[in-house]
# Entry
Amino acid sequence: MKLEEQVPRNALVWIIGTQFFLLLPHLSRIPWWVLVLYVATAVWRSMVYTGRWSFPGGYVKTSLTIVCFGGVALSYGTLIGLEPTVALLLIAYSLKLIELANQRDAYMVIFIAYFVCLTEFLFSQELLITLYMIVAVLLNTTSLVALHQPGQDRFTSSTIRRAGSMMLQALPLMILLFVVFPRIGPLWNVPLKSHAARSGMSDFMKPGDVANLSLSDEVAFRVQFEGEVPARRELYWRGLVLSKLDDGAWRSLRWRDVPGDQRRLAEPELVGDYSDYSIIMEPTQQNWLYALPYATTRDRGIIRSNDFRLVSPVEVQDQKRYQVRSWLEVPLEDDISDWRRGVDTSLPELQNPQTRELALQMLAEADGDPQRYANAVLEMFRDQAFFYTLRPPLLQGENPVDQFLFGTRRGFCEHYASAFTWLMRFAGIPARVVAGYQGGEINPVNGTVIVHQFDAHAWNEIWLQGQGWVRMDPTFAIAPARIEFGLEQALAEEGSFLAETPLSPLRYRNIGWVNNLRLQLDAINYRWQLFVISYDQDQRYQILNRLLGSVGQTQLVFLVAGAWALLLVPVIITMVWRNRGPRLDAATRLYLDFCRRLRRAGFERSGHEAPAAFAQRVAADRPAWAEELTAITRCYENLAYGGSSDPEALDELKRRVRTFRA
Amino acid sequence: MVSAALSESWQRYRERAQRRWRRWLNRRIPPAKKVTLDQKRIFIFPTRIGFFFLFTLLVMLVAAINYQNNMSFALTFLLINIFVVTVLHTYGNLAGLTVHAVRASPVFAGQRAEFEIMVSRASRRQYFGLHFDWLKQDSAIINLQDRQEQHIKLYLRTERRGWYKPERLRLDTVYPLGMLRAWTWLDLDIRALVYPRPLASGDLPGVSSDQPDGMAEPVPGSDDFYGLRDYQRGDSLRHVFWKSVAKGQPLQSKHYTAYADRSVWLDWNLFEGLPPEQRLSHLCYWVLEFDRRNEEYGLRLPGVTLEPDSGENHRLTALRQLALWGSPDGNSAVTSMRAAA
# Structure
């Protein structure tokens, strides 16, 4: 093989290094054995390099490919969808390594790597991931540079510096293109992320689900209020309304559960104060959005459901930004329909008999007044020995609520919310579980409210005549600190807050500089999401209008082309002017003009012939010109060699040359 | 008929285009012993891989649009602009280099002539993957990292005797990314002297010598035995002094005075009736043969006479005459030779 087609050792090392670097952020969403494959192919290729093994034969390669395809199909149960597609791409990226023999193969691997960079962004566009991917692109570009440094047997920093400087030079124009490139809608449907990647709440709540969510310190969404942030105990971010009991779990009503005439939202009358805010939500792969009650929005493509929530018609695949106006004092659903009353009071007849007895007894004690009855239940939770814990005992058997209320008495918010609903429904009061988040952390740096997964919460709404749906939070009765200060304080005694993620910076909130750093980073992240990740056609129009006034598409094309031209000015100028030789002084130009005239008359001056000698030669042939020839030559020699820069002499030369007729 | 006419006119057109191209190149990059590469002399265009990369970018752009993914847009735009920036870097990997003609060694027609060139840089900038390609016959790829200059030897086939001036040398590079190729065509004003292809002719027909009875091939016993000398390759086995071999001594051959004394004239007319090139080839063979035997010989060509002599310089002069005989350069070679003598 020719030297220029070989893959230098350095390039091979860079390529393999890039592979592992790119695999790393994908690891959580691909089968574990892909990592094994990466190690195996890297070892194999190194062995080929050292000459101990040879490239695998076609038979081996084919069977490996088939096995890997089968493996992906088995691991995911399908080959359709974004994750299996990315897994296949990563596998191809790795398998290509063991047939990387010449430069062409190396190009393939490197170009696939650029594409793998892109796939990572489909899952996360966070600032840290973006920084990580910048390093990945740098490594990959370095492999490409190393590929063109033939015969290099030692590593030099020049390789990576070259790649880095190219990236830096490309950066300004990248930003320009990013801003001006139109954001049109999708051209066709593409494989979407699978539902396995769903995060946050689900619309199916078993005891223990919210507690599980509380173990995570991930951000669920960030909120920026336009005015003042409402009091913490008002921050009930409604996400789901769970009305139906299903196998001991609460779930929301599906579309088909709701009769057609009930699907429409009964718009309440807007009274009292409102609060404006915008939310940037992390992707959940779910449809519902979080907001304070009663939420209205002017964003296109957001639906308001009949239980006063905001719903996105498409699953939230990427970070989503939406603007909300919440009317905190508006009563929800003054008038309850029979259908809804039926749904929200139904219970299995035979379960939890003790609870039923308790409910009827307490209702009697409250003289049948729903409000007094509900308060009595909350008082019971507060005054009796109920405990708020992240580590409740498991509830088993036919009558879990009985077991909870009369036995264990230890639970997390979903246990209390569930028990409360049972107690209300046994008393014939419409009641439901609401799932979402409660509270949030105010970042003093930029004033955003950061809502984490551990702020996940479940509470209740009961319907009272004249008041509509009223929020009831049994957790507040048992552990007021949870609502007033947050989960950490509520669990201070137990010490179970984020106990399973010892490295979470949130655990070190008491250390000043750690907390400061975390909040600063979060503020940067928020800006990143606001201005970069959610940059869209509207923002584009705004920016372009502000910077350039109203411009058309054609002008933008010219703008980009102009910027490119500007970048390439050194080359372009010289390309346009390259026909010109070195710049000559005026005298020489005139003399060369004179020589051209003589050439037309058949006298060619050869390269080494001095002007005087040339003049003599021509004069010998054409004595008639002799006088003019010598005059011009003398003039030129004086100017060129005599050191004279007399403008008159130049004028004389000009005149003589112009009037010379050969 | 029509196709023949067409192909003929196509041929004519191509030749004309090539001529025009060469003329244009000669103006743009005039022949010189030393060429410094600058914008005037460097061409640049995307490679196949470059176009493939652009296609990959198109796919990435479509993915970014379909997923409405801003970071994917950013990545695609970064790569597009890296491609644009590569123009400067690829160009920079030739600019500032100077290519010098060093020497061309003479060869016999049909052999490959060695051309030595040198490439040097003015700055401390590192150059990588400089690919020299000469007429697709020989190529070399070098880096200029620590050293300021590097010599390269390239070998080109020769066919006819005389001065061999190869077509332009192509120097190209795809560094750093392989997506663009910058190249230049260099005429280093370098030529190699090509001697005629030596052609054995059996015995020398009718050796022309100062002594009319002179013979090129001495018959053993007819001349005086002069002495022994170490056997040299090519000595006739008949002259080997076998007695000493039998005694275990190194091979020696008997040496006859005729070789040393008689000066032979290698004459154009010895090969009466043969075409000129063949005559020159035979003469070339005999020049080498006599030089190997360390005998004196003279050379007589129409218009050229070289007095009998022996030795390295004499051989080179004789070969040069044979190489250049009949060409305009040949006469000047002779005159300069005489002037030197």
Summary: The radius of gyration of chain A is 39 Å.
